[in-house]
Amino acid sequence: MANGWPSWHASTGVDRPHELPDAPPGEPATISFEGRALSAKAGEPLAVALLAHGIDIASRSVKYHRPRGAFCLAGTCAQCWMRIDGIPNRAACTTPVTSGMIVSRENAFPSAELDLFRAADLMFPGGLDHHKLGTTPSRAVNMIIGGATRQMAGLGAIADDAQIAPSPSMRHLVCDLLVIGGGPAGLAAAETAAKAGLGVLLVEKRRELGGQLLGGLFDDDAELSSLRARARGVIESHGGQVWPHAVALGIYPGEGREREVLVRRYFGLAEEHLVTVKPDAVILATGGYEQAALFGDNDLPGHYGARALARLLVRRVLPGNRVVIVEGVTPVETASRLAKKLVSVGATVTRVSAYPHADPAVLSGRVPREARGRARVKGLEIGSATDPTAKAQVLRCSLIASALPQAPAFELAVQAGASVEHRPDLGGFAVKADPGSGRASAHGVFAAGDVTGATTARRAMHDGVSAGLSAALFFGPDAALEEARERAFHAALGGPVR
Amino acid sequence: MTKIIVCRCEDVLLSDLEDAIEGGNQDVESLKRYTGFGTGVCQGKSCVAHVGAILAAQLESKAVPIMPFTPRPPVSPIPMRLLAAKDDTTVVSLRGPRGRHKGPADGAK
Description:
CATH superfamily of the domain at 5-59 in chain B: BFD-like [2Fe-2S]-binding domain
Largest sheet of chain B: 2 strands, antiparallel
Structural class of chain B: alpha+beta
Number of helices of chain A: 10
Oligomer: heterodimer
Structural class of chain A: alpha/beta
Radius of gyration of chain B: 21 Å
Number of helices of chain B: 4
Distance between the termini of chain B: 58 Å
Helix content of chain B: 25-40%
CATH architecture of the largest domain in chain A: 3-Layer(bba) Sandwich
Largest interface: A-B, 88 and 64 residues
CATH topology of the domain at 5-59 in chain B: Arc Repressor Mutant, subunit A
Number of strands of chain A: 26
Number of strands of chain B: 3
CATH class of the largest domain in chain A: Alpha Beta
Largest sheet of chain A: 7 strands, mixed
Strand content of chain B: 5-15%
Radius of gyration of chain A: 24 Å
CATH architecture of the domain at 5-59 in chain B: Orthogonal Bundle
CATH topology of the largest domain in chain A: FAD/NAD(P)-binding domain
Order of helices and strands of chain B: EEHHHHE
Shape of chain A: globular
Helix content of chain A: 10-25%
Strand content of chain A: 25-35%
Number of domains of chain A: 3
């Protein structure tokens, strides 16, 4: 590849150079990327197709025009927004490939590969203070600066008119319980509550259920795998509904204690529409957002979230074969599991942790200082976590994976009236939930999993069971359900199970 | 010289935030208004947790609880055309035997 990446395959002429040899063929589809025909697989996320071809610059940043690429591959970090089929600002990581799809990058001149506007980055190495920009004593100069700034900034060009289809009508639904999020916590909660006799609706923003289990890092865990495989069937067999591809957009207070949740169903598909859901109780299992470690040039393409990289591996795409996994002060179970997966496909892995790690192979007590490379990651300089004067070391690599605790997705909880607390050790602002019951601080609201700062996938599942039982008990007392919740609480703590 | 980017959507640097805190913006909301962090496309999903930690580290002993800014709906961007849609007044009911409005789940689509 001309882009200077270490290609995965030693041989040249491979159609998708960053795809592992054992990748399934899929249904072939051809996309047009800035005038170039690229081979893709129908239904795979567009960002994955581009990465398989070594196209890692998805956009340019809004102010300094720095090269940016996919980081979270989960539709949240907003770094892979592209113009797709005439519509601007669509996340490439959540847009499935269709044959004949026309894709281009935005906001760069003359192209995203070589963007002359990056001069803004190079001219202001210490940053550009927008409070002082264009505030010279000369009005004429200020107007010129203002005009130029407006030219350089922005988010894409407006959509082609013909592309905007009328939207299907808004629908309405009432239910006993709405579970938001289909990861281990949400699946366990919805399954438990449905079995206990509630009319349950589960919404999950992704096309597939599983949340963090989609990264394939817990396939060796029989309990988690079984939950993922069976939950939908159990919920539906008890009269509940499961909506993948459905995003909860907001929670609005209604009359009295009522609340309404606005859901975007069939997200990104032709039949997408809004639904208002009026539940008596809500379980928030919204998970968290992957966070990028803070170091110099931490925004370079080639720096991914650990879970994002795991999901890429599931799709058998790996855009580089030397990986540095960075952990902060809190150990994250994803880190060791990802390292094992990467090694099993032949990648070279170095682990760095700020905390003292028992494994001597992990470079512990070390923190990342700055990434090397101009347009993509070429290395990572690390230093001592405690002594800033200690000698730095440069690790050569093509990928960096940040394995920090997920930042809890607390937005809907706050909208529902629940409290959050600042817990840097749990990744950010965690929703406060009673550990035995999952009860949050608002009437009829429960929370489980990463959104509360759960430490492991198993913990998320057990908390989900507790929250599901608590939601059932919210509708009236029941000795058997109480007892089951007690058992779930002990299971969550890894303690005695009666 | 490298840049430590905290908010990718709006290109807000760690140094911008540290300067703003020193300048008296000592809560998350004020920092957002001054630096523009969290006002971009992701609405803080990639940065507000970092900003909380940066604030805590810089303020050290001043033990005011750190709270996030108000997260308003929609929590992820949507096309305006969806909001402009007509209203279908049919209400689907999903009730279980244990629910407050007892009755079998009709499971209607």
